[in-house]
Write a structure and sequence with these properties.
Keywords: Repeat, WD repeat. The protein has 65 residues and is of the alpha+beta class. The protein has one helix and two strands; from the N terminus they run αββ. The chain has one domain. It is 45% helix and 15% strand.
């Protein structure tokens, strides 16, 4: 029984590695920028928001993408 579990874990790890290789090969087509190195905590995620132009004399905001 233990041999089967070890074999299943090895197969699962191999499948994950193959899927990762496929993903990494196709990332230039999916994303503008991909950084594949680990970041230090707390920089786990980054979000870029659209620019905001404020027209102060009307107190109106205009969003740009």
């Amino acid at each position: 029984m233990a041999d089967k579990e070890v074999y299943d874990d090895a197969v699962e790890e191999r499948v994950i590695n193959e899927e990762y290789k496929i993903w990494k090969k196709n990332t230039p087509f999916l994303y503008d920028l991909v950084m594949t190195h680990a970041l230090e905590w707390p920089s786990l995620t980054v979000q870029w928001l659209p620019d905001v132009n404020r027209i102060w004399w009307f107190w109106i905001s205009e969003w740009k993408d």
